[in-house]
Amino acid sequence: MTQPARTGPCEWPLNTAYCKGWDQLDEAVQKAATDLATEVLWALSGRRFGVCDSTVRPVRRGDGEAWRRWESWLDLPYGGSFAVTFCGCPVGTCACGPVGQELSLPGPVNAVTRVVIDGQELPAEAYAVYDRRWLVRIDGGSWPTWQDLTAADDQPGAWAVTYERGVPVPAGGQVAAGAFACEVAKAMVADTTCRLPRRVASLVRQGVQQTFVDPAQLARDGMTGLPEVDQWLRVVNPHRLPRDTVVWSPDLNRGRRRTS
User: Fold this and answer.
1) What's the rounded Cα separation, in Å, for the pair 138 and 79?
2) Rounded Cα distance, 161 and 54, in Å
3) Which residues, at least 6 apart from 26, have a Cβ–Cβ distance to it below 8 Å?
4) To the nearest 10°, the Cα dihedral for 49, 51, 56, 62?
5) Which domain of life is it from (predicted)?
6) Which of the 8 DSSP states describes residue 18?
7) Rounded Cα distance, 197 and 229, in Å
8) Which end is more exposed in the chain, N or C (fewer Cβ atoms within 10 Å of the end residue's Cβ)?
9) What is the per-residue pLDDT across 67-115, written as a single tens digit (0 to 9) for each?
10) In whole numbers, what is the pLDDT of the chain averaged over residues?
11) Where are the domains of the chain?
């Protein structure tokens, strides 16, 4: 199954309950404003929110020593049959189960929606997700040790995992996106009540000078110029990181936690 590279949020719900006149806007304007607002907030919040539907075909990437871990997945099918490599780390150092009972999915895994093996759907009670990454058989069975990538996902000789990948957008993010999309839509239709900052440094009227924030500087600071939106961004990404950071150490052994 061919899946395009992710360049924006797959699913970012909007709460537009506080946007007066949103329902009266043209559908094309709503969509354009939504696309722009969610893509900007996805980037400014660290590219970590939003859930994507993903289907992967687990395959072997190589043979390694007992302590190596191999990512057992592939997005783009091509000809050939391959065995699957699972977690094979030494007992006591990384809580690995028996070979063939667990595999690593590109995460974070929000929920597994379907597992098909040889054209048959596996009951949801047969597996569980740990640490938003590991798909583990809990029914005593094992994952197939090979598959034919020339076969379709639901055909004999093939097996596939369909799951939701990503972190759901929190309620505050949905409100922030709704507020941002609302102002973007106003700008598109030349609504004079639009609150988005303009490229005006200062304005003098009747002897009173008013100074405005440069939107280019706001962008460099990872802000939008809308107080309610920027407040949420400061909470979820206070250091303005472009993406999530990862800390790994061979000395870490925190055990596992079932997440789905």
Assistant:
1) 31
2) 8
3) none
4) 10
5) Bacteria
6) T
7) 13
8) N
9) 333 334 444 444 444 444 433 333 333 334 444 788 999 989 999 999 9
10) 79
11) 22-49+169-236, 52-167
85-99, 125-139, 176-190, 245-259, range with the lowest pLDDT: 85-99
pLDDT tens string 145-175: 888 989 999 999 999 999 999 999 999 999 9
Q: Which two tokens stand for residue 72?
A: 């057992």
pTM of the model: 0.71
pLDDT score at 221: 80
In sequence order, the β-bridge partners of residue 53 are 164
Two tokens, residue 48: 């970590």
Q: Which residue has the tokens 């970012």?
A: 12
Distance CA(77)–CA(195), nearest Å, equals 48
- Does the pLDDT of residue 208 top 70, yes or no? no
Q: Which two tokens stand for residue 257?
A: 């936690």
Q: Which residue has the tokens 């590219």?
A: 47
Q: How many residues does the chain have?
A: 260
CA 223-226-228 angle, 5° bins? 100
Reply yes or no: is the peptide bond before residue 77 cis, omega within 30 of 0: no
- CA 236 from chain centre, in angstroms, equals 15
With a CB cutoff of 8 Å and minimum separation 6, the contacts of 165 are 51, 52, 53, 54, 105, 106, 107, 108, 109, 110
d(CA 153, CA 97): 26
Secondary structure element (H or E) that encloses residue 56, with its range:
strand 50-56
